[in-house]
Specification:
With about 450 residues, the chain is an alpha/beta fold. It contains 17 helices and 17 strands.
Length: about 450
């Protein structure tokens, strides 16, 4: 772990090699139980605090102590410093520049909830600084960034949890779904449909004055330098002070410069479960075809020519050819969730339900005892952070690891590239590049803005 004068806390974050070698499973809750003394709890910091940043912080204050918070928006930073103080009775230090967090030897791990275009740079620098990392999904802005993170995890040996909480915090429906498939309850899987909802375009968004509390240049960071844009009407329910339309807070998801729209937002949840169900030997795409889609602005050579409106796809129907003749569809139509279809049946699962004949049949023919736990790899925690802390102790990668996340996220990134270029893409999984399409391969990476390069 990170250098620290606190021997007790270091010992808490270690586990005996004998227990790991014996394959002893201890629940994540049990691994953190008893860490009641502040000296025995891991020390965390959150970088990026609006919305999901606070969500993961608030779920973790019972398991870790937060020594520092960082955000480029002074209002967001101040609000969340007070929130954490109210919970742990001690105010964390506040920084605008995340690098001040990484400079501290007393911080064991960072939780990253910045906009997507910042994830990779912060994560890599955190690992180089000796921190374990919990990073919100989608992990990367490009496929090349995923490779960089994998390289750094391997080089540094840091524990890295991706915040796809659907693997553990949305009840056991998704785990049950995978258990049903592994038990052969729908026969051979033939088709998987991931419904991830569409989005809406925007009106013309004018250049506006940057809010006094926001460091706009630092918010942009690795992304190209552009004007701040916003319409004054506020978006309800997102912490206040958020314009209904902008190229910043919350709405960053609607711009390819900073994110990947619904394909990498909700796709990072449902495509992840679909690939988990298929297994690691069959979860890389062979071909990605944009059957139908709507882009809200004109594109030329894969790039938007209009810069004052949202530019990610608003509607889409993507066909993905997977190994073993499995067809995956990613669509903005229909119910949000995943439909699994096989030779012997079908069922649907989302965060609110799991339904279908194979599910009904469980009443008379239940899954074998422990089948759901076998999917997870041990007892299932109610909190994604508990799994992260357990992994910090064992020094084994958590349930939502970098490699499995990147494999499924490649499908989402390729879907966006296919729509931007308007053509099918053939994927070479062994080389992790697009076969026979030099232009498309230029979209696998992006150059960071000068001064915000990733140094490894």
């Amino acid at each position: 772990m990170v250098k620290s004068g606190n021997t007790t806390r270091r010992q808490f974050l270690q586990v005996t090699a004998a227990a790991g070698a014996a394959g002893v499973f201890t629940s994540s809750a049990a691994l953190v139980k008893g860490a009641e003394s502040p000296n025995e709890r891991p020390v965390f910091s959150t970088i990026g605090l609006r919305n999901q940043g606070w969500a993961i912080t608030s779920k973790s204050t019972g398991l870790a102590d937060f020594a520092a918070l960082a955000d480029v928006d002074a209002n967001v930073l101040g609000t969340n410093v007070q929130r954490v103080k109210d919970r742990q009775k001690k105010a964390p230090d506040a920084y605008k520049d995340y690098r001040k967090v990484l400079d501290r030897d007393d911080i064991d791990a960072v939780m990253i909830a910045t906009p997507d275009h910042w994830h990779t740079k912060v994560a890599i620098e955190a690992m180089l600084a000796g921190k374990d990392v919990y990073c919100e999904k989608p992990l990367t802005l490009t496929i090349a960034e995923g490779k960089l993170i994998e390289k750094m995890v391997k080089k540094t040996g840091r524990v890295f949890q991706v915040g796809t909480m659907q693997r553990s915090e949305s009840g056991q429906r998704f785990l049950q779904a995978i258990a049903l498939i592994r038990a052969g309850r729908i026969g051979k899987v033939q088709k998987i449909t991931c419904g991830i909802n569409g989005t809406n375009g925007s009106p013309e968004i004018p250049v506006a004055s940057v809010p006094a509390e926001l460091d706009w240049d630092l918010w942009l960071g690795p992304a190209p330098k552009v004007d701040y844009r916003a319409l004054p009407e506020e978006r309800k329910g997102y912490g206040g002070g958020v314009p209904l339309y902008s190229n910043c807070h919350y709405s960053f998801r609607e711009w390819h410069e900073y994110a990947g729209g619904k394909l990498t937002d909700w796709g990072a949840h449902h495509v992840d479960i679909a690939c988990w169900a298929l297994g690691e030997d069959a979860n890389s795409p062979k071909k990605v075809s944009p059957v139908s889609y709507t882009l809200p602005v004109e594109y030329k050579d894969g790039y938007p020519v209009v810069h004052d409106r949202y530019n990610v796809a608003t509607k889409f129907n993507i066909k993905v050819d997977m190994p073993n003749d499995v067809e995956m569809t990613i669509t903005s139509e229909g119910d949000n969730g995943i439909l699994f279809e096989g030779t012997d049946g079908r069922f649907f699962v989302n965060r609110g339900k799991i339904v279908g004949a194979p599910v009904e049949a469980l009443e008379k023919n239940p899954l074998p005892e422990g089948a759901v736990e076998d999917v997870y790899g041990g007892p299932i925690p109610s909190n994604h952070t508990a799994n992260f802390i357990a992994s910090m102790k064992s020094r084994k990668q958590p349930i939502s690891d970098v490699w499995s996340h990147n494999r499924m996220l490649e499908i989402c990134h390729l879907s966006n590239i296919a729509m931007r270029l308007g053509r099918d893409l053939n994927w070479d999984a062994s080389k992790r590049e697009i076969a026979g399409d030099d232009q498309a391969n230029t979209f696998l990476a992006r150059e960071n803005r000068k001064g915000y390069e990733i140094n490894m």
